[in-house]
């Protein structure tokens, strides 16, 4: 993936952020793996959540493999710059995180199950990096679509922290907030590892299993 010579370890202030643009990036409105539409509107029964867990190539693949997940898309969220470009996000001057939007059918998979995938698929204690991928765009985050979802995410973080602490691991640094605006990433990033099976994936967990004690949503 693209790297800058100096990675950003601190989020910019709003007035420091790049200006961006009013026009959204153009993407192909078809999921490369399952053929469903990437762009809204979505069926009313689907529920949305956005996750950040490092490089979004591997993160998206992890979630499209989950039964009950209907659509995934990669993009940028949590910053200030409207409709940012990948290189702008990697500069650290947009404030955005690399994220994956997950649309799921709660009759087929619960939010608690998705949280298990999230916690076990990366190391949420690393702050502004994930493994060798360093910068604010690689921070851990759960961006929730409603207050109930946020409460469940907060409970899950407490449960996983207990498991991590028992194993001598550090404190969780995951952002837990209501969902900010999601901006689609460039077309070539969408379902990247299906298009490029040998492509880079830096995803890796702590080896600590998540204690499944949070109720279903």
Task: Give descriptors for this structure.
217 residues; alpha+beta; six-stranded mixed β-sheet; two-stranded antiparallel sheet; 5 helices; 8 strands; 22% helix; disordered N terminus
In short:
The protein is of the alpha+beta class and 217 residues long. It has helices at residues 56-64, 86-90, 111-120, 147-166, 192-195, and strands spanning 47-53, 69-77, 97-104, 129-130, 133-134, 140-144, 175-178, 183-184. The chain has a 6-stranded mixed beta sheet, covered by helices on one side. Strands 4-5 form a two-stranded antiparallel ribbon.
Give me the secondary-structure topology:
Blueprint: E1 47-53, H1 56-64, E2 69-77, H2 86-90, E3 97-104, H3 111-120, E4 129-130, E5 133-134, E6 140-144, H4 147-166, E7 175-178, E8 183-184, H5 192-195
Parallel strand pairs: 6-7
Antiparallel strand pairs: 1-3, 1-6, 2-3, 2-8, 4-5
Helix pairs in contact: 3-4
Would you mind describing this structure in some detail?
- The chain is α+β, with helices and mostly antiparallel strands and 217 residues long.
- 22% of the residues lie in helices and 18% in strands.
- It has 5 helices and 8 strands.
- The chain has helices at 56-64, 86-90, 111-120, 147-166, 192-195; strands at 47-53, 69-77, 97-104, 129-130, 133-134, 140-144, 175-178, 183-184.
- The strands form 2 sheets. The protein has a 6-stranded mixed sheet with strand order 7-6-1-3-2-8, with helices on one face. A two-stranded antiparallel ribbon has the order 4-5.
- β6 (140-144), α4 and β7 (175-178) form a beta-alpha-beta unit.
- Residues 1-5 have low confidence and may be disordered.
């Amino acid at each position: 993936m693209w790297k800058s010579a100096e990675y950003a370890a601190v989020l910019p202030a709003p007035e420091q952020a790049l200006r961006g643009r009013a026009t959204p990036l153009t993407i192909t409105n078809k999921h490369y793996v399952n053929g469903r539409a990437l762009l809204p509107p979505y069926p009313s029964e689907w529920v949305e959540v956005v996750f950040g867990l490092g490089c979004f190539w591997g993160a998206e693949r992890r979630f499209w493999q989950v039964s009950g997940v209907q659509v995934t898309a990669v993009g940028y969220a949590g910053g200030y710059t409207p409709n940012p470009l990948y290189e702008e996000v990697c500069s650290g001057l947009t404030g955005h995180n690399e994220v994956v939007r997950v649309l799921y059918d709660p009759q087929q998979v619960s939010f608690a199950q998705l949280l298990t995938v999230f916690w076990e698929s990366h190391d949420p204690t690393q702050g502004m990096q994930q493994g060798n991928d360093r910068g604010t765009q690689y921070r851990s985050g759960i961006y929730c679509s409603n207050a109930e979802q946020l409460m469940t995410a907060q409970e899950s973080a407490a449960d996983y922290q207990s498991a991590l602490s028992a194993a001598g691991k550090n404190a969780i640094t995951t952002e837990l907030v209501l969902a900010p605006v999601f901006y689609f990433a460039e077309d070539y990033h969408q379902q990247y590892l299906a298009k490029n099976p040998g492509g880079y994936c830096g995803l890796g967990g702590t080896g600590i299993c998540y204690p499944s004690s949070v109720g279903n949503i």
